[in-house]
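Troubleshooting log. The previous run stalled partway through. Resubmitting the same two chains, unchanged.
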Amino acid sequence: MDMYWLYIDMPQLALDIAQKQHSGNLPWVICDQQQLVCQCNDQARQQGIKVGQPLHLAHQLAEQLQWQELDPAKVKEQLDALQQALLAHTPKLAAIDDYGILICSDGMEQIYTTVQQQMRTLLNLVKHQRIRADICMAMSGPLAIWLGKARRTQPTLPRLLLHNRLTLPLSASNLEAAIIKSFAAMGIETLEQLLQLPRPELNQRYGKTLLNYIDQCLGHQPSHYPWQQARAQFDKSIELNFEISDCTRLLAPIERLTQALERYLRTTQQQCQQIQLELLDREKHSLVLSIASRSHQHLSSDWLTLIQLRLETLRLTTPMLTIRLRGEQLQPLKTPTGGLWADASQSHDHGQLLDQLQQRLGPESIFRLTGGDTHLPEGQTQLSSLQSDNTGSSHFQGSCRTRPIWLLEPPQSLAQEPFEILDSPELIELYQEGKRVVRCYQKLRLRNGALAWGFYTPLSTPPQWWLHGYFS
Amino acid sequence: MNKPLESMMQQQLVWQGKHWHPSHQALTSTGYAQLDQQLQDQGWSNGSINEIYSSSMGMGEMQLVLPALAHLSEQKRWMIWIAPPAMPNATALQQHGINTERVLVVHPHNVRDQFWAIEQALRSGSCSAVLGWPQGLSGLQLRRLKVAAQSGDCIAFLFRPEHERSQASCANNRIALQGTANAGHFQAELFKRDGGWPVTLDDCAYQKPWFYSTH
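Second attempt completed without errors. Output:
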């Protein structure tokens, strides 16, 4: 089959958004700035409310009428979110006005075996978000949109419009109302009838615009649409059907999100190094958990393991109703490359252990040993967080004397502790923040037999002995 | 077989000689030839649990493991120190030939997390050695650590307080250290080992850097 076009029509999108936030079977209308009804649900229609009626009349017809003014920003936001969700399943789509999404089949023939399968997948995805929608197919973009609009009033029209089935009403086309009215006066009401008219006369009477539109519908001229780009960041949320206060019960919905993340990363050929999990309660107070990985992850199971470790130590103070997952630090997927004789120990993913330790114990609990540029023994070794940028130095200050394995922070007074001096003093003298520091280090033996490292401060008043480490 | 012994064997509280199989894995010396001869693999075995008991810091408890750490730090795996009692001195470790880039220090917030971290590190296969200072380990927990060490092909050194040595343990080797009258020396009592009777090494000197410093 040649390239085909799908159109998802959502004429009641504003109404669906409003109704999603309010449960119940009440009559609902959306009105425009002139307070005229522009969308209404079945319950409102049953009570005699019609599109175009003034709002005050609708109120008289239905006592329990619920209404909202059309909010184009909210509709656009929902449409954007919907497009992002659809982009995980189809790569080329564009928003049409504020109530439709046009999808080009380009590149999808290899993924969906039939057109019907693709239509079913996309329609289910939209309906899953509680939005009423219709989907149809034609051999050009304008024709698919035309068919979608026509099916609003004539639901018996086929969903799939193939060649030579051009009985579409002109009233549903994108032609100007005056032109449609003019054709109607001549008894021409369908595309099929319009195509039988001579082109030169049409050009002479209605201008080039009409012919261009017809050619685009027939696929003889290309159509241009603002194709939507997939966001560089994964962002998806789930609203739970009931509140959850036990962290372990959050795992099932979170798994759905990590699976969506995996699908997104696979579709966009990316990998991810950090995710942000946001839990929101009924009052929209949020708890944000940032989960980082040292390696680039793209599998749902890897992320879920790290999330599980974090949730094991988390206590929720309020029940949660919404879960939001964002993928950050996305990078193009790299295929691991290795030599034929790659070392087996190098191929092992040591980062996984660090990820797990960091999630369970917190990143502030895991350290590397780094060196400091000072002659003071306590400054020569530092514990640096794995997260910190302080890579420090792995070369430490050398000394001809043996240093103790353990250092005490801070040094402890030996004023009350008897000890025996085992060797000659080693003088360490320097200026620290403008002050002269003099320490005489010696090996000591404490009363319990422990080998220790202590120093004497001759400049302090009175001079004192301090225990600074142990030779273990 | 009498009933109490049979019951203890069912609970795996008695080490049986049939589990003794000299391995052909790479050996890791303790740095003390006398002690190496007493150990099952002529040194610390991969996948083994080794307990070192001392009454306080400064009794020579690290001397038994420093040569092994220097050897293991040549691998591309981590050496993780979990809940150490003080700050490890990187300069001293380098003096003993240890590559400190392979060293990670972990400070869990509670006893439960200490055990969890030791078990995960042992099991992961990402560590060549795990040095732990756990508190109040039970027999069941030790058995779990032993299985984890075997599956991760990792050596575990557990530094435990002297007063816990009376508790039963499934560790492969259990050594108690005491200071001697001679400064820079210690006594090592290997009071439990796989495949042999207890032995005591009376006068173990500190590792070589100590001698260099006492010129």
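Takeaways: Chain B has a mean pLDDT of 88. The longest strand of chain B covers residues 185-193.
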